[in-house]
Amino acid sequence: MDGDRDGSAQVRRPVAGGRAALARSGGARARGGGAIIAATCIATFIVRGRGTPAPFDPPREFVATGPYRYVRNPMYVGAAMVILGAGLVVSSISIAVLAFAFVAITHAFVVLYEEPALDRAFGDSYQRYRAQVHRWLVWPP
User: Is the pLDDT of residue 4 over 90?
Assistant: First the structure.
């Protein structure tokens, strides 16, 4: 708030364009893209893996197609994009920080539990896949 010459307070309103609009636009794209990635991962698990992401119905076949060709954990990448995008859309630093906390917690889960479990379940196939596809960085095969 700025004071006028007469001592009254004036509220500053953000300009319609600029960085805030750019952040909202980028956030909406990240949120939408992340949702599409996550939905594609679920569909790939159902069709190719003959299962779901749910622990009570995991894929019966090893899945290394679709988004999994480019990154080992596309569903988590998509979820992080949705959270970060939502934070940008509503201009919330707290939600943006939540996205980074999600990534840190997910990384620990993947390294300590999920990768050893996949190694036990799928053996050589998973080890070859792991040597070729990055855990977090999206990269062409």
Answer: no
